[in-house]
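ok so I'm stuck.
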Amino acid sequence: MTSSLDKNYSKAYGHSLTPGTKPALILVDLVQAYFEPDCELFADVDDALQSALRILEIARERGILIIYTNVVYQAAGLDGGRFYEKALPLKHFCTGSPLGEFTAGIEPREDELIVSKQYPSAFFGTSLASTLTSKGIDTLIITGLTTSGCIRASCVDAMSSGFIPIVVADACGDRHEAPHEANLFDMRAKYAEVWSESDACDYLSKSVNIIG
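replied:
not stuck anymore, here's the structure
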């Protein structure tokens, strides 16, 4: 069945994007809500976090631009719109909630960018695209949570904004393997390249210092 599916999709979506020479790394929504067992957003994705942290270490060594995202709402989700109405657990991301804080190991430095958003995509309603453009970035290495939600939305908008999206399968996670794998398949087919952690680290280790 899988081979038949791959063969079917390869007829229309067998082409690959060529990564550019000026990448940035984004770590999407690695916040405590997804790591707290008592929270309904708990996703059991520590392996993805550890993979993202290893990639982060190499990106820092190479001087790559690093971006973190989180979701932050005003009291009672005043600025959350239909997304806040639809996804009730977003209440945990109202200002002041400890579940909205970055999880252990995610400690942004002063020279690293934090993009706070209210919707799934890191690009929608934020200045991310213009920031990347101003820095000459052509490729975005995407890690974080969740594969079927904010990773996919950010991937599609990265491509739509003219950047080459590289989704790192090992460094992304979801609350179940089925949506994780299904969305990786779809992104690989239509919107992005999907790489292993090893491939991403190898690429970053060869990239030039582009901060500044």
